[in-house]
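Appendix C: a fully annotated inverse folding record. The material below is reproduced so that readers can follow the format used throughout the book. The structure is listed first as tokens, followed by the designed sequence.
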């Protein structure tokens, strides 16, 4: 069992994070090439100048990700299967996984860390393992994931429900399938099958 305590509120220079252990979180991590740096810098500049809010920036990023920019390695079945296997392996061990989806260039999770496991440790472990495995499967080297994930804690049950539905509906919204349960690499598909 991990004995690293949760970090509380912190930042590594990209995004603010909230890690208080046991708090249900919405996580998004994306491939390193899924969002061009100039697009991200432009959005950050707009936030600094108070032209848009942090929330509007995140909505813009999500819309951009759903366009399927970059190599979209997660679209490859062997990579998506490896991601799925890794996520499900630790469900009930390190965290309770409420909803999840593997999109072509990003992953959404709704999870609650188990006692003794910090969110930062869970994310680091998952991203480290999957990046190494993906690079082996793709016969490539280099950065696989963007350095930091986006995370947001659930304020209440309504927020939880909206986030759950957002995650499972993401493939439909992105035009990848007609029904939530049609997307093979998702919690919606697993509940159906």
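Designed amino acids, in order:
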């Amino acid at each position: 069992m991990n004995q690293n305590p949760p970090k509380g509120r912190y930042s590594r220079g990209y995004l603010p994070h909230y890690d208080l252990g046991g708090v249900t979180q919405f996580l998004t991590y994306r491939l390193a090439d899924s969002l061009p740096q100039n697009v991200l810098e432009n959005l950050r500049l707009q936030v600094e100048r108070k032209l848009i809010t942090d929330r509007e920036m995140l909505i813009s990023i999500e819309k951009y990700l759903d366009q399927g920019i970059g190599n979209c390695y997660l679209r490859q079945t062997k990579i998506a299967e490896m991601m799925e296997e890794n996520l499900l392996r630790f469900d009930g061990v390190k965290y309770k996984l409420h909803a999840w989806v593997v999109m072509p260039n990003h992953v959404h999770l709704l999870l609650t860390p188990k006692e003794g496991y910090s969110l930062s440790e869970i994310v680091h472990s998952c991203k480290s393992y999957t990046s190494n495995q993906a690079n082996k499967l793709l016969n490539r080297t280099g950065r696989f994931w963007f350095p930091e994930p986006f995370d947001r804690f659930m304020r209440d049950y309504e927020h939880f429900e909206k986030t759950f539905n957002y995650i499972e509906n993401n493939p439909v919204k992105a035009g990848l399938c007609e029904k939530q349960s049609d997307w093979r690499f998702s919690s919606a598909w697993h509940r159906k099958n």
